[in-house]
Amino acid sequence: MSRELQFRPPLAWDCLLGYLRLRAIPGVEMVGDTQYRRTVALGGHQGWIEVSMTPGASALNVEVSPSLNAVADSLLPRIKRLFDLDAAPDAISALLLQDPRLNSSVRRLPGLRVAGAFDGFELAVRAVLGQQVSVKAATTVAGRWAQAFGTPIATPFAQLNRLTPSAGRMASVPYGEICALGVVGARARCLVALAAAVIERQVDLDFAGDAEQQVQSLMRVAGIGPWTAQYIAMRALHWHDAFPSGDLMLMRAANADKRQLQELAEAWRPWRAYAAHYLWQSLHSPDAS
To answer: What CATH number matches the domain at 120-231, 1.10.340.30, 3.30.750.24, 3.40.190.10, 1.10.1200.10?
Structure first.
């Protein structure tokens, strides 16, 4: 099955793919030069998707395995959130261009999107695994996590062979088995506690409810602080005003300490998540010092 999902241009597709490529969970996701692929378990159905830009149109082309046709109506909204297709780039740019710290990056990358999440629990696990380690290291451990606890699946793509582990699966895993993957004890316990909180509906990671309330609920899980909660809200909850103000790279990009950055960010509401991504991108600009 092939579907098209429309978006309001522009869309910085290469930049979005690059962001997802660095964070793709081995076995579950793969990102090529022009397309994104992943395994899917939804509503009792299993399969895969492939997403690419439709040539000459403001739309993404979505290829869906026949096994997922029955859940297409639930699948497509998740893909739209993953690629932030409901964004309003003109309104976002109009506000952020006013700040000299952001102006250059906004002009260089029109239509920058905030990558969302296909699966909220998967993203939350990825965020916890990424605490105080490099993106590359977190991606490696996430791949081990998927191979150890994910369900095997056959796809046309040799690199896609696991379904992402569910909260139900992780809640029953002894934290020692998670530690064996190279995860420190505190983070392993956090993952088990997070899974239990999701199952018990203390935390909602499926783009439902009040995002600010969910941030507070996330921070009640031992091991999840403001940075992790805001990052999860930015991507899993699709909250466009989420802002991890304690992020060292954001402070570096803005040449500000945490308090100063929080004050600066008030002018970026309600698009602080986009401002964060533009600041991160500014560190990769040829003009960055």
So the answer is: 1.10.340.30
Domains of the chain by residue range: 2-84, 120-231
Contact 192, 170 (CB under 8 A): yes
- Tokens for 100? 């000299």
Q: Which CATH class is domain 2-84?
A: alpha beta
Please determine, for residue 100, whether its predicted confidence score (pLDDT) is greater than 80.
Answer: yes
Q: Label residue 207 by pLDDT band (50, 70, 90).
A: low
Whole-structure pTM over 0.85, yes or no?
yes
Q: What is the pLDDT of residues 130-180, one digit of tens each?
A: 998 999 999 999 999 999 999 999 999 999 999 999 999 999 999 899 999
- For tokens 């203390």, the residue is 202
The pLDDT of residue 96: 98
Under 8 Å between Cβ of 223 and 187: yes
Cα–Cα distance, 148 to 181 (Å, whole number): 8
Neighbours of 94 (CB within 10 A): 12
